Amino acid sequence: MSETPAKKTIFSDIVRDLDLYLSAAAFLFVSCVMFLLVITRYLYSLSLPALEEFTMVVFVWFLYFSMIYCLRHNLHIKVEIIDTLIGQKLNKIIDTIADIILLIFTSVMFYNGILLVIFNMGRSGGKTPMLDIPYYVVYIVLPFSFGLFTVFLAMRILGHVKDILPTKIK
């Protein structure tokens, strides 16, 4: 009995690459609005601080969603000269150690992001100056993105470990 391949739909593509689509939409929004803000400032001497504030929030969210996408597709900048000098197996071990260190960092950021959001949901949390957006709405991206980052890193580390271990142990 052969397995039938999963039917691909537009919805499944969007869900699978949600970080990509959110990053692209945020980047397009920020680019267009920043162009508009430059035009209004220099041609009409008009400043739109509320729109600037919202654009700043969207830009921060864009950065965190892009970070997740780059991790999933291994697109982060790295020094590859070391890869050519050492063997493939040692390279995988070094990558695994680096990913474990990064996993510890992302776990700490995830935990502290949750604490930051909870703190800002309480009475002590403030709001943005122009739009009165509660800060927890701005900061919710931290636990969300670092949570996903931690999950994807753990999956990648498991893949490294499977590659490193001899086939008899697998």
Give a verbal description of the structure.
Helix content is 74%, strand content 0%. The protein is an all-alpha fold and 170 residues long. It folds into two domains: 1-77; 78-170, no CATH class. Helix 3 (49-72) runs parallel beside helix 7 (141-164) and helix 5 packs antiparallel against helix 7. The chain is elongated. The chain starts with 9 loop residues before the first helix and ends in a 6-residue tail after the last helix.
Topology at a glance:
Layout: H1 10-16, H2 18-44, H3 49-72, H4 81-85, H5 88-121, H6 135-139, H7 141-164
Strand composition percent:
under 5%
Write the H/E string, N to C.
Answer: HHHHHHH
How many domains make up the 3D coordinates? 2
Count of helical stretches? 7
Question: Nearest-angstrom radius of gyration?
Answer: 21 Å
Q: Any idea what the shape is?
A: elongated
What is the strand tally?
Answer: 0
Largest sheet: none
Helix/strand/pairing class, anyone?
Answer: mainly alpha
Q: Which regions contain 5 or more consecutive residues with pLDDT less than 50? A: none
Helical content stands at over 70%
Alpha carbon gap, first and last residue: 25 Å
Task: Characterize this entry briefly.
This protein has 170 residues and is an all-alpha fold. The chain is built from seven helices and no strands. The radius of gyration is 21 Å and the shape is elongated.
Give the key terms:
mainly alpha; 2 domains; 7 helices; elongated
